[in-house]
Specification:
heterotrimer; A mainly alpha (324); B mainly alpha (329); C alpha/beta (316); A: 324 residues; mainly alpha; ABC transporter involved in vitamin B12 uptake, BtuC; two-stranded antiparallel sheet; 14 helices; C: 316 residues; alpha/beta; Rossmann fold; 2 domains; four-stranded parallel β-sheet; 12 strands
């Protein structure tokens, strides 16, 4: 009886390990840094995580469907440069519309290559990473783009404004996360994504069109990148051509930390949100404690492996893998 | 008889489509640029690709196993920093040119050890190699910055960079080293028990276990090989520069994986060859060199390389499908 | 075999050199190769490239081979080798790293090709192998920024520093010049913390947000260029913090505009067009056999809200 309870606690520990680690980190930083637990600072970390978080929501859908998307970083550069550049030329609303159409076209290409032609998603999106970075530079001619009068446009509010005392990027991030979580956990589409990622062969037989689901997942990912570009472009009021460089790996790290399996078929949006926030708090906390910025990479190394290890150890019921 | 031979050649080409592509771009650049077809330039290409190439040899083994190693770029930087820094330590100042030896041992040793660490984590925890090495990619880069304190190192002794620029007969030493390594890894993969096991583990793990292969230690060995190769690449790269920078090797993992996949190795494991990988490495090297000589603007190079990667993937898929159909009939 | 080959190579090089001299006498075409650091990463480098191409096209005696290393040292070395292979008359290099390119530069010199370093210098160990350096004096720029900071704070206060890409010569020199001069001219000003902003406005904005949380007594911000400086300014504005002096080390148009609005104290005026034209002219002068000073610094004056009328707004 007692041992059963102990086992229950053990599996709870392992299954919710990510939440516990999250709590431990928060407490640890709060104990050693005065400014960490400051409400302004906590809000700021969430706000800074919003861009990566919004993209991670889309990438989670792609990963649940059993694929990867490494092109999101350059796609973010592309979208941000485009929307900022067009803002002064054709006005904010048309600029946003054109940008969203453009990223959706890129999402279409990913979806076509991976969904329809069934090519390997890692390599396809790796190729797209390079190609889209080139497209961005060709589009802008390599010049930075800026919004001339940032005080005069409502566009600036997306990244800088607030509502009820909470910054708009947090509202966007939170709303999108809840919406996508509901979509993934309650709708037929959500079930199909899990089915396609969990067991691609079986799902074909059960009549689910893998092609459509994968295609849709990449469109969602692209749309999320477009939304993130709005926040980024508005926050900075300008853009460099490499602004999204390396985001794909931070996003992926957040998704993995949240416990989404790269094999597909499992994971939730809300856990991805927690994964992204953990990365944000590690980064912020270590800087406030006075560590050099590269120490966070070492900590992230350990945290990622431990988190995923505990997660799968709980699922298989033993700590070490059965590999001989 | 003649058709038989022709068939064999054709079949070889369908198995290694990348070599068809290599020939195609080789002819294209030879005809379109006066400086391309030149012994010196071919040597340049071999030296320039040797860094990516050495890593790709090790990566091929790991990927045939069905694993992947994303940390190689960071290992390149760490090995290069160790190589350049340690040879100028005061402790070895009396050793003359032998001061390079402890540096070399440290660089290669650390690379191999990090490979072993990755391998053991993959083996013991059962966490996907992609995740384990994604973590290591960040973490090892962190180690580089901790070790170097963000500074570049410079080898005071020009012998080191002379070694990187030296030649064996008319051929640059680094090109010779790359070619020898290619032959050795090719033999390892195609002629030895370890090579056969590499395919077996990646192709059908259960069958491999049933055949008595100890999958865990086997994978660790391949991770150690790729770690060693990445460190060796770090050493050769730093010898070309006589220096090491903490940002060295960024994105190399992506180019290495690209080269290996272009060479026909499957990401799911079980298939691939060193001949194919060598072709993939050459394809990237010739494209970069040729586009430099033809002055293709840098922005377009990115688009062209990305598009070619995807195009070859499509072509490969078509050929495999045709091959399967041909086998059926 | 090898000796004959070497003799042959030496012979042809000598012949090529003679030919080059003979051609120069008739003001014939020079083939000048350039390998740049990372075009497209910021507007300065992009504008530099455009200005370089424009200047080369305007000069009928010059044929330019324009390459970009994309920030990767290894690729830059490969490009230097490719330029040697093409037997260009001179190589201009914008080093991705001041130390790592030294052996490749030495290789070019050994092949009889003069090397001109542009924008940011190579390590001293390589000085023997280059014909000339043309560019801004980054240490002096850092020092000038320190003087501006001193002036803005009246010699008293606490500041934070946002540096450029770690490991990059320009970043290191601007930081060093700033810190050394500040300690000398203005001991009353303390640098509380330095973090890299990677020449990236968004990164710099994030770094500044963390600084603002951590310190409530920031009087001034020094940034490695205006692009990062304006990122820091954005962060301070969003946090509602006023009375902070922002100083950069290369004036960008965004910085110029912020100065017009009175939000930005000052910067250093550095024109990529001057930079590019000076590099090309130095290369041509060397090929013409003229005497060229080893260090060709072009002027990079201080620009502040007071004297900005004397300068046209940067195009980048």
């Amino acid at each position: 009886m007692a041992s059963a309870r102990l086992k229950g606690i053990g599996s709870l520990l392992a299954r919710q390990g990510i939440l516990i680690a999250f709590a431990l980190f928060l407490l640890g930083f709060a104990a050693f840094s005065d400014s960490f637990s400051d409400a302004d600072n906590l809000m700021q970390v969430v706000r800074q995580s919003a861009i990566i978080g919004v993209i991670a929501i889309g990438v989670t859908v792609v990963v649940i469907s059993g694929n990867l998307d490494l092109s999101v970083g350059s796609m973010l550069s592309f979208a941000t440069v485009m929307v900022v550049d067009l803002h002064d030329k054709i006005g904010p609303v048309p600029a946003i519309a054109v940008m969203l159409v453009a990223v959706l076209v890129l999402g279409c290409i990913n979806g076509f290559l991976v969904g329809v032609l069934k090519l390997n998603s890692l390599i396809v999106t790796l190729g797209m990473l390079s190609a889209i970075q080139g497209l961005t530079l060709i589009y802008s001619g390599g010049q930075n783009v800026d919004i001339a009068d940032q005080e005069a446009t409502w566009f600036s509010l997306i990244g800088r404004g607030s509502f009820l005392g909470i910054a708009l990027p947090i509202w966007i991030f939170g709303t999108l996360a809840i919406f996508m979580h509901v979509v993934m956990s309650t709708t037929a589409f959500g079930r199909r994504v899990y089915a396609v990622g969990g067991n691609p062969t079986a799902s074909v037989f059960s009549g689910i069109r893998r092609t459509h689901v994968v295609f849709a997942a990449y469109m969602i990912s692209a749309l999320c990148v477009g939304i993130a570009a709005l926040i980024l472009g508005s926050r900075v009021g300008g853009s460099q051509n490499n602004v999204g460089q390396g985001y794909e790996l931070q996003v992926l790290a957040g998704v993995i930390l949240g416990g989404t399996s790269l094999l597909g078929g499992s994971g939730t949006i809300l856990k991805t949100v927690i994964g992204v926030l953990i990365l944000g708090f590690i980064q912020n906390g270590l800087l406030l404690l006075g560590f050099a910025y590269y120490v966070q990479w070492l900590v992230t190394w350990v945290v990622i492996i431990l988190a995923v290890w505990l997660d799968i150890a709980a699922k298989r019921g033993r700590l070490l893998s059965p590999i001989a | 008889m003649a058709t038989l031979k022709q068939n064999a050649a054709l079949r070889w080409l369908t198995e290694n489509p990348i070599w068809g592509f290599v020939v195609l771009i080789f002819v294209f650049f030879s005809l379109s640029n006066e400086f391309f077809f030149d012994m010196n330039n071919f040597q340049n290409i071999l030296v320039q690709t040797s860094t990516i190439g050495l890593i790709a040899l090790g990566m091929t083994l790991v990927m045939i196993n069905g694993n992947i190693d994303l940390s190689v770029g960071a290992v390149v930087a760490l090995a290069a920093s160790l190589m350049v820094d340690i040879q100028s330590w005061d402790a070895f100042s009396g050793w003359g040119n032998w001061q390079m030896l402890p540096a070399l041992i440290a660089a290669l040793g650390v690379g191999t050890a990090l490979g072993a660490l990755n391998g053991i984590i993959v083996w013991k925890t059962g966490v996907d190699a992609f995740i384990v090495t994604l973590g290591a990619m960040l973490g090892v880069r962190g180690l580089v910055f901790v070790y170097t304190k963000e500074q570049s190192f410079f080898a005071m002794n020009f012998t080191f960079s002379d070694l990187g620029m030296s030649t064996v007969g008319p051929v640059p030493s680094l090109a010779v080293l790359f070619l020898i390594a290619t032959v050795l890894v090719h033999i390892l993969l195609s002629r030895t028990v370890h090579g056969r096991n590499t395919y077996a583990v990646g192709g059908n793990r259960e069958a491999a276990v049933n055949a008595g292969i100890r999958v865990g230690p086997h994978m660790v060995v391949n991770f150690m090989i790729v770690g060693f190769m990445a460190a060796l690449a770090g050493v050769t790269l730093s010898s070309q520069m006589g220096a090491a920078t903490p940002n060295l090797g960024r994105d190399y993992e992506l180019w290495v994986i690209t080269a290996v996949v272009l060479g026909g190795t499957k990401l799911t494991g079980g298939a691939g060859s060193i001949i194919g990988t060598f072709g993939g490495v050459l394809a990237i090297g010739i494209l970069r060199n040729g586009m430099n000589l033809m002055q293709v603007p840098a922005f377009y190079v990115l688009v062209i390389l990305g598009s070619i990667l995807i195009a070859v993937l499509i072509l490969d898929k078509q050929l495999t499908r045709k091959g399967v159909e041909a086998l059926k009939t | 075999m090898t000796t004959t080959l070497k003799a042959l190579v030496a012979g042809t090089t000598a012949m090529a050199a003679t030919c080059a001299l003979a051609l120069a006498a008739q003001a014939q075409e020079y083939k000048i190769g350039i390998t740049q650091n990372n075009v497209g990463v910021d507007s300065y480098q992009t504008t530099y490239e455009q200005a370089f191409i424009a200047a080369a096209e305007a000069n009928e005696n010059v044929e330019a081979v324009v390459l970009d290393a994309g920030g990767d040292v290894a690729r830059q070395i490969a490009q230097i080798q490719d330029l040697i292979q093409q037997q260009v008359d001179a190589i201009i290099i914008w080093p991705t790293n001041g130390q790592a390119v030294v052996p490749a530069v030495r290789q070019a010199k050994n092949a009889g090709i003069p090397v001109i370093v542009t924008n940011s210098n190579i390590a001293e160990e390589g000085f023997d192998f280059i014909a000339s350096f043309s560019g801004p004096n980054n240490i002096q720029q850092g020092a000038s920024s320190a003087e501006l900071m001193c002036e803005a704070l009246d010699g008293e206060g606490n500041i934070v520093q946002i540096s450029g890409q770690p490991g990059y010569t320009t970043a290191i020199e601007r930081q060093q010049g700033f810190e050394d001069r500040l300690a000398e001219a203005c001991p009353g000003v303390t640098i509380m913390e330095t973090q890299p902003g990677d020449w990236n406005r968004e990164k710099s904005q994030r770094v500044m947000e963390a600084f603002l949380v951590k310190y409530d007594n920031i009087d001034g911000v020094y940034a490695g260029d205006d692009n990062m400086g304006v990122g820091a300014l954005n962060a301070a504005k969003a946090a509602g913090r006023e009375g902070i002096a922002f100083i950069g080390a290369t004036n960008f148009s965004v910085g110029y505009e912020a100065m017009e609005r009175g939000e930005y104290y000052g910067s250093i005026y550095q024109s990529p067009v001057d930079d590019a034209e000076a590099a090309l002219q130095t290369a041509i002068d060397i090929l013409d056999g003229k005497d060229v000073p080893f260090l060709n610094y072009f002027e990079t004056p201080k620009i502040t809200q007071d004297n900005m009328g004397e300068f046209t707004k940067p195009v980048f």
